[in-house]
Design goal:
Elements lengths: L7 E3 L6 E3 L3 E2 L7 E2 L1 H26 L6 H24 L1
Antiparallel strand pairs: 1-2, 3-4
The structure holds zinc ion.
Zinc ion binds next to helix 1.
């Protein structure tokens, strides 16, 4: 970042001129946007995004395999082991 604070740039979102360093416009757009777009759109978007991620974490943690599926996996492993023993013994 070697842009000067008084440099004039064009906002990638609203296409208006702005002065200053600008803000990362991602994920709304690639490039940099003005203070206003950052405050009104990008920041709001990120806040919402983080809110959703938090909610998602609340809902999915701890992410466990349901009991009935655990039993199926256990039975599958036992059957696999028996099959391997049988095949080994018969050969
Ligand atoms: Zn803008």
């Amino acid at each position: 970042m070697d842009k000067k604070n008084n440099a004039v740039s064009i906002c990638v979102i609203c296409k208006n001129n702005y002065t200053g360093l600008g803000h990362n416009a991602e994920p709304l757009a690639v490039g940099e946007c003005c203070d206003r777009c950052h405050a009104d759109l990008v920041k709001v978007g990120w806040d919402k995004h983080n809110e959703i991620i938090d909610k998602l974490n609340e809902h999915s943690v701890p992410r466990k395999i349901p009991k009935d599926k655990q039993n199926l996996i256990g039975i599958g492993m036992i059957l696999g082991a028996i099959l391997m023993i049988v095949v080994t013994v018969w050969n």
